[in-house]
Design goal:
It contains 14 helices and two strands. It is mainly alpha-helical. The chain has two domains: about 70 residues, no CATH class; about 240 residues, Orthogonal Bundle (MetI-like fold), CATH 1.10.3720.10. Strands 1-2 form a two-stranded antiparallel sheet. A hairpin with a 4-residue loop joins strand 1 and strand 2.
Length: about 325
């Protein structure tokens, strides 16, 4: 287990170094940062002094080493557009994105797994067929279209749910949350369902496919032959073996929810890091863009590492193979 963890950490470090190199290239080749930091009235001497103070005249390898050193210490520079430290902007917006992702992922698991189990246990029933048709529609429809339709129906026609913003928030000092207020919960319903719909249908179809395969296994036939209750066969034996691969895919999907909730945040004007990233692209705010890329890489590497360790702990075949 220890050597497996070391190897995965080494691989994660390589991925982060590659992403840091890509972010550094954005800093260096996607425009002159001096031109975006100063006004047109700034003299050439002031520009040269600022370039020297920022270390832009140093060799490329030294600049990259300084960039990595600043990233490690949490210094991501100043936003060209807002003139504030990027770390502060990310810290202000990250709680909104994490809360939205957690609620969306929880909805996907809470609805997708039971529907997948039912569709796998009774694949020929009309209910299972309707579930499969709805899941196909959920996978096929674009996220922005789902969000707009929900906004029109629940926000405009019925006028029962907010269509933009985060609602009232509570500042806990280290965290700003909207989950402690009524308007915060009402505001998160539509974006969370929109963001989690694809994951819900994906998990449901995956659970259904795994259940169909597991139910044909020999140990399930043996359990039925022993006269075990159906509930024990379905949920203690079949579902337990089904959730091993589902756990791996679900973990990666959680990372993708955090990283790629950009469209949902844009449609509902959710004040998270995804909306900040879109605003940075429109204004070519390279420090914010590169920091977002690094944050996404850290999220994916961390989630992937946790999933691998859980998979290693749950599946005894991996431990036997290592031994």
């Amino acid at each position: 287990m220890f050597f497996y963890l070391l190897r995965r950490l080494f691989q994660a470090a390589i991925v982060l170094v590659v992403v840091a190199l890509a972010a550094f290239v954005m800093f260096r080749y996607l425009g002159d940062p001096i031109a975006q930091l100063v006004s047109e009235e700034t003299t050439l001497a002031d520009r040269a002094a600022l370039r020297e103070s920022l270390g832009l005249n140093d060799p490329v390898l030294m600049q990259f080493a300084h960039f990595v050193g600043r990233v490690v210490t949490g210094k991501f520079g100043l936003s060209y557009q807002m003139g504030q430290p990027v770390s502060r902007l990310i810290a202000e917006r990250l709680p909104a994105s994490l809360e939205l992702s957690v609620v969306a992922f929880s909805l996907a698991l809470a609805i997708g797994i039971p529907m997948g189990v039912f569709a796998g246990l009774k694949p020929d029933s009309w209910t299972a067929r309707i579930i499969m048709i709805l899941s196909l529609a959920g996978i096929s429809m674009p996220t922005f279209f789902v969000g707009l339709m929900l906004m029109v129906y629940f926000g405009v026609e019925l006028a029962i749910l907010p269509t933009f913003g985060r609602g009232d928030t509570v500042d806990l000092g280290f965290w700003t949350t909207g989950l402690l207020t009524r308007s915060g919960w009402l505001s998160i319903i539509l974006p969370a369902f929109t963001l989690g719909l694809f994951q819900l249908t994906f998990i449901m179809r995956l659970v259904r496919a795994e259940m169909l395969e597991v139910m044909r296994a020999d140990f399930i036939r043996f359990a039925k032959a022993r006269g075990l209750p159906a509930r024990s066969v379905y949920f203690r034996h079949a579902l337990k073996n089904t959730l091993v691969p589902v756990m791996t895919i679900a973990g990666l999907q959680f990372g993708s929810i955090i990283a790629f909730g950009i469209i949902t945040e844009s449609v509902f004007q959710w004040p998270g890091i995804g909306l900040l990233f879109l605003q940075a692209i429109s204004s070519v705010d390279i420090p914010v863009i590169s920091t977002y890329l690094l944050l996404v890489a850290v999220i994916f590497v961390t989630v992937n590492l946790i999933v691998d360790l859980l998979y290693y702990a749950v599946d005894p075949r991996l431990r036997v193979g290592r031994n």
